[in-house]
Amino acid sequence: MTHAHLLEGRVAVITGGASGLGRATAELFAEHGAKVVVADVHDQRGAETVQAIEKRGGGATYLHTNVAVADEVRAVVQMAEDTYGKLDIMVANAGIAGPQKHLEDVDDDEMRLVFDVNFLGIWRAFKYAAPAIRRAGGGSMTSTSAVSGVYTMGGIKRGVYTATKRATNVMTSYFATELAPDRIRVNCVAPGGMSTNITENYGIPQAASAAAPPPLPTRKLREFGTANYPICDPLEVAQVHLFLNSDLASFVNGEVIVADGGGFSTTVAAFFPQALTGESQQ
User: What structural domains does the chain harbor?
Assistant: First the structure.
């Protein structure tokens, strides 16, 4: 199946671009004609992502970027302009899972780390990208949230992670209103079950340091329509980032797009009778 090059001539920075959804997005954007700057803390995987893009004839480069460090985020935006002459697109995707604990058991340092990466990291990406995209005459930005940041999902003990994602949703909408006069659209993608290191290695602490890269996932896909809660390949969510950053979404701004295959709705529907009656459903 062939596609038009939806991002021909554009330059994109993708944070967390070395693996999972970030890598899928980087490779997809390059296939659609974008020059891609991969920003991550996992250098080997970042280099592998660039090599994969170049092998297919695309253009990409990598810069070690910890989104918790303002100077490093500023530097990757500058690199895009220095290397490719401009910046049109920012995909603020980098994130960590954080502790899988009840909120009362989370300590201050754990809370600060997750917010610094998942929330402030997106704020920094948007903050430093906005002037560059403005200089390019406009463009777009997307963030990666999560379905748990849209719906409260009890029992998963991910209150810190979820709080950062819900905060991201609100911040994204505010950026959208503030940057609209500059012809910069800002939207958010909220994935559900997705085969990435955060999902597949659930419960394993995710570090923000290059010294401890997350384990590569063992693919455990549950295709749409085959299970109450489907688990997709990251490419399926990367396609939503592609849409939102292309001209196909030219009139979409300030939105949070849930991409979970209906997982939340179908799961609630499956267990709703049990919740009402208290009877076990076979």
Answer: 11-277 (3.40.50.720)
